[in-house]
Amino acid sequence: MDFFDVIKKRASIRSFKERLVSDDQVEQLLKAANSAPSAGNLQSYRILVIKNDDLKDKLVEAAHGQKFIGQAPVNFAFLRDIERAKSKYGERAELYSLQDGTIAATFLQLAAVDLGLGSCWVGSFIEDKVKEHLDTTKKPLAIIPVGYPAQRSRTDSARRELEEMVSFIE
Ligand SMILES: Cc1cc2nc3c(=O)[nH]c(=O)nc-3n(C[C@H](O)[C@H](O)[C@H](O)COP(=O)(O)O)c2cc1C
Question: Which fold has domain 17-149?
Fold first, then answer.
């Protein structure tokens, strides 16, 4: 798919078919995330691939009942690895590790579109509960449920006018 078509087609998908996402597709998604830029090329994040139904149910609860997390055949949890960034960047590590992880998650979302899959960024969750369920001390940045869309992709979400947020500095 043409890159700008991918951008245009991406929209938050909150309803998924039962159809599974193959291991090959999961690998392609992870490779896309892995190709994202990162500060010093340190890739200061971790990705957890979640297919287990019990764990998905726990994440639904931790994410205030967002049921589509449980409906998606696979979820990707992106965690910040601040310690890795600190090895090189001191006080910039907090920002860099957050950026590294979120850019990688974005790459994964765009790759999903190209594979005919849909996804949604989930950021609304109780952090401590997610950490507990994922058995980690690392900060969860986003949960990305991925699957075959069971809804038409809404690509017409309103956006602010560019003039509202862009300034050209001559
Ligand atoms: C940081 C962040 C957190 C978000 N959290 C949620 C969430 O918890 N649940 C949800 O359904 N959508 C969530 N979204 C998706 C946004 O609602 C969505 O991207 C926005 O409304 C624009 O719609 P679009 O993605 O279809 O273009 C989140 C997006 C971002 C970037």
Answer: NADH Oxidase (3.40.109)
